[in-house]
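Task: encode each sequence below as structure tokens.

Item 1
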Amino acid sequence: MMIDKWVKTILALLALLLVFSFGVPYARAENQWGFGTDIGFLADTYDDTVFTLSFQGDYYLNSQLSIGPQILISPAGDLTQVTVAGIGRYHIPMGAVTISPFAGLGIVYAELDEGPRDNDDVSFSLPFGATAAFKVSRTVSLASTLIFTFQDLGVPSRVSSDNFNIGMLFGFRFQP
């Protein structure tokens, strides 16, 4: 099954990130939490392309590896879609820009309002992608995120299934 192949691939990537992080010295910040917020678009949903908000937290295990929650909220048109996931990020500093590939596991809830009847579904979510963050100051960065999400939503009134979304988001990151 194709979903099993993607789950194994994402788990292998997370394991690889964990192995790479063992040789990195621990971050010496008093506050090890960072957070971010984004605004952008999510394509290939039941309503085609929709407006999306993203909120994430990062607990820094060391200077290059963080884990934390991510929430994607898409409240547009007759579709409401909310994704909650646990994400692992590997931060690669490249001068003023930091590239952060990420992957995670979570759940997604989608509700499609079609007048007298509502259709909704809950599914697993496998988000992955990368963020490029440009440092504005020591703790604040401007960010751009490309996110891919696999899920298995099936809203009964639609013929096609919603198994894959692509998103482009822009926002801020606040590091410890």
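Item 2
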Amino acid sequence: MSSKQFKLITILVAIIVVFTTAYFVIDKRISKKESEQPSSLTNIEIFNFDIENIAEVLIKNKDGEFAFTMENNKWLQKGSEQFNFNQYILNDIINNMSTLQALEIITESAEDLSLYGLDSPSVVITCITDSNKYILEIGKPSITKNSYYVKKQGEMTVYSIDYNKGLTFDITKEDLKDIYLFDALSSEVMGISLECDGAVVYSVSKSNTSGWIMNQPLATERTNVANITSMVDSIIRINIANFIQENVQDYSEYGFDNPSYILEISSESKTEKILFGKTVSETNEIYAMFESSKDVVTFYRNNLSLMDLTAENLLLDTIHTENVYDLSKLEIIVNGELTTLTFEASADDLTNAKYTYNGTDINALGDDAVKLFINFYSSIVGVYFDHLDLDAQPDTSLEPEISFTYTRKSEPETVTISFIRESENTFYAIKDGEYTGFVVRLKTFHEDRGLFKTQDALVRYINEHS
């Protein structure tokens, strides 16, 4: 190595040592300076109180003063002005206020509150216990929209709080209003009725003993519980699209003088009737008025699927069903020809059930015969209706073309379902001599799983294997 190269290497090493030493000195100084700064994570407490002790809440904003009191774990509105308010919004306000912390203290002695919008607060929230009041004044948001200015009433210390918490507190009357068509749990809904153009479309109610029953247009317990439950779940999720007007006087302006629909929903604690008027074609919103408050709102029409349902949608589509273990005999008459089925079955042991067809032991013919017998029986209890016709008055004294007479092991001892011709392709369904209101199409009996084809398959099998 030449002396020139050795000198160059020595100089480079020296430079590295100098810069490395300088780095550690500077880093140490920076670390020391940062450790001397106050921590940004220091808690700055504004309020800390137990929400369980809050008995009353007062909210004052540009729309007025609103008071709420806690009774039986539920908020109730005080005063003469009443509206459907959102319990969850109220709880959210109280929860956030009870543990409210500041991002920072802006000033401990504000000289000009107008700088912060606190000379005339947009909202004043008061939480009251038996012995204390906690009063928060809400100012304006910061210019950067990352915080809100607030202070305690009676003090001059101005705090900044998280912007989203500020939005929770900075509320109008409209923000306090309930946004749901009917605010309840699905299990709490006890009744629903719908009118269209003055006529009842359906009316269903729930009892502790019978479950869901239909009251109108047909009184029956044979309801489609799955469809009703789905409707209830839909109803409690429907949100108001827009708030339009309070305490409406002129019903004709929105079409409430001649409502297109009237919906009534009830729970054990409340009933709400809602009138629906004109539709705004541009937005597909429909005007609605809550009868209790006379508040006008809109809903998006495509969210109101319950208005497209009919009574038929809420009923079981079969005319009459019986379990084989409840029967001893079934007599089928088609155009005067009698077929007799017998049953020996237990609900606890259906696999060993015994069946006969016109005296033929079906079980003796094997499993295929049993399956064909069950298919035939299913076609009888599976006869479904096409539509309701409650205005019809069929002559029930006429001889039916098709009838099923069930002999039961319990009361009533017999049930007869018969079908009287209405037209070339339809029948009236009659139960024990009374018109059911159901109309059945002829094709129901001629489908692949219908009466005629399943009986024909069973008879052919019996003839081939007897």
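Check on item 2: Helices lie at 3-36, 87-98, 163-169, 173-176, 225-235, 367-381, 443-446, 451-465. DSSP finds eight helices and 27 strands in the chain.
End of task.
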